[in-house]
Design brief:
By secondary structure, the chain is of the alpha+beta class. The protein has 5 helices and 7 strands; from the N terminus they run H-E-E-H-H-E-H-H-E-E-E-E. Strands 1, 2, 3, 4, 5, 6 and 7 form a 7-stranded mixed β-sheet that branches. The chain is globular, with a radius of gyration of 16 Å. The N and C termini lie far apart (34 Å).
């Protein structure tokens, strides 16, 4: 993705590797990765009914984020995903949502072979604001073992006229999931069940 498409100031990667969460160590750890692109907000400080400057190029941004997030998983397959945005205080929450709509979601799903609803979170905040990016199974939203999140904080972003746009991936469900519900093996892969 050319920097002129979205004017990316910085990239930030967050990773976690979980081998146990109160129970025995598992053979296959849970690896989570979230990559953030810090972009200029073209609507900072002004209201506009037309948010196309954020909507139209968002698919290309998602492709770049997914590529980096897959690399951060170290070659493992992405089984779950989520997306999010933190909008600097001169912008609106709607500016973050505009970055994450259909073009972004389609590119994220295509990049990991998914077809499910991509969960998301957006908020307005200052430099260093944290956000929890929800994660869900990439082929069926109702597979409970994948309900999870990764916390993202970018120490130097977003500045007031920026948006921190995030794609998050994980390699499996929670390491000690045991609360029932639809299992991955029983999912139809229809995007919901």
């Amino acid at each position: 993705m050319a920097s002129s498409d979205f004017d990316v100031r910085a990239w930030h990667t967050t990773t976690e590797e979980i081998h146990s969460d109160g129970g025995p160590t598992v053979e296959q750890p849970l690896i989570k990765a979230a990559v953030t692109a810090v972009i200029r907000n073209p609507y900072a400080g002004r209201y506009s009914d037309d948010l196309s400057e954020l909507l139209e190029p968002s698919g290309a941004l998602a492709k770049a984020l997914v590529s980096r997030a897959l690399a951060a998983l170290g070659g493992a397959e992405a089984e779950s995903c989520g997306k999010g945005a933190i909008v600097g205080v001169a912008g609106e929450q709607e500016h973050g949502v505009a970055c994450l709509t259909t073009p972004f979601g389609d590119a994220l799903r295509d990049g990991i072979g998914g077809n499910g609803w991509v969960t998301s979170a957006t908020k307005v905040g200052g430099v260093g604001t944290s956000i929890d990016i929800p994660l869900a199974y990439k082929r069926a939203l109702f597979v409970r073992e994948f309900y999870d999140a990764i916390t993202v904080t970018v120490p130097a972003a977003p500045r007031p006229d920026e948006i921190a746009v995030i794609a998050a991936l994980a390699t499996r469900g929670r390491v000690h999931h045991r609360v029932g519900g639809l299992s991955k093996s029983d999912a139809k892969g229809d995007g919901l069940r």
